[in-house]
Amino acid sequence: MTTQDLAKREKQELKAEEGTRPGRWFVQDVDILEDDDALWLWADMPGVDPDQVNVDVHDDVLTIEGRVSTKDYDGLAPVYTEYNVGNWVRRFTMPAGSFDDAKISARLVNGVLEVKLPKSEKAKPRRIPVSVS
Amino acid sequence: MDFVTDALNGLVALQTELDRLLRNPSGGAFVGLSGAGVYPPINIFRDQKGDSLVIRAELPGLTPDDIAVSLERRRVTISGERKREHEGRGAYHRRERAFGKFSRSFAVPDDLDLEKATAQWRNGVLTLRVPPMAEAKPRHITIQAA
């Protein structure tokens, strides 16, 4: 018996690059939203402890990364599986100079990473009043 | 399998182990599973110490209040709703995350004690633990000298 609003999606595996440590990486599903003051990003990355998350901006590339803990699987022998687990990573190229790098903030709640990238002053929309003479 | 003692290759060992069964879906018969391919995907383990059945599902963005786990006879149902947030706050650049209602049921073997099942929530992952029935555990009988 199933209700099928929320459909299962296969996790996407990262194949384009290889890390120095072995193990597979997966690509987070993200929502990115822009309002007047900031760009907001939400990434689904379940199974990651808050201290295992890394968010950084370097050369206008935003990297969001998280490592899963294998300790939750200690002593468990799988008998049936429908998904694999792995570390998460994704990178986005940002428009140069649009954000105030020093003010970027991030938090992890219930397996979702929220990143707030405040816009730099010059990137904020400016409304120019039109005077009526 | 001990994934912790080998910190370097623990993840690889875990991934290989999960993969082996991913390619062999017939294992679902073990738990009388129906509705494979529906949300949320689940993984099932046997705890090598104590023989409990451990059922795990990734449900990012939900809170324990959004999830209902109900037990009826041998049947476990995980249901809930992931509500969309931040609607109308600005313009979306990307919208990949899925939202909506879900419900999934499966049966567990009858040597397990659903009355004593526990549920744990951590980092967007739900873990159900169902211990074996007391009578399924080996019992020792004291021999009385006549």
**Largest interface, with Cβ-Cβ < 8 Å?**
A-B, 53 and 70 residues
Query: Which CATH class of the largest domain in chain B applies here?
Result: Mainly Beta
The CATH architecture of chain A comes to: Sandwich
Helix content of chain A: under 10%
CATH class of chain A: Mainly Beta
Q: Counting H and I runs of at least 4 residues, what is the number of helices of chain B?
A: 1
The SS-based structural class of chain A is mainly beta
User: What is the share of helical residues of chain B?
Assistant: under 10%
Q: How many beta-strand elements of chain A? A: 11
Stretches of chain B where pLDDT is under 50 for at least 5 consecutive residues are: none
* Gyration radius over CA of chain B: 19 Å
Give the SSE string of chain B: HEEEEEEEE
Summarize it.
Chain A is an all-beta fold.
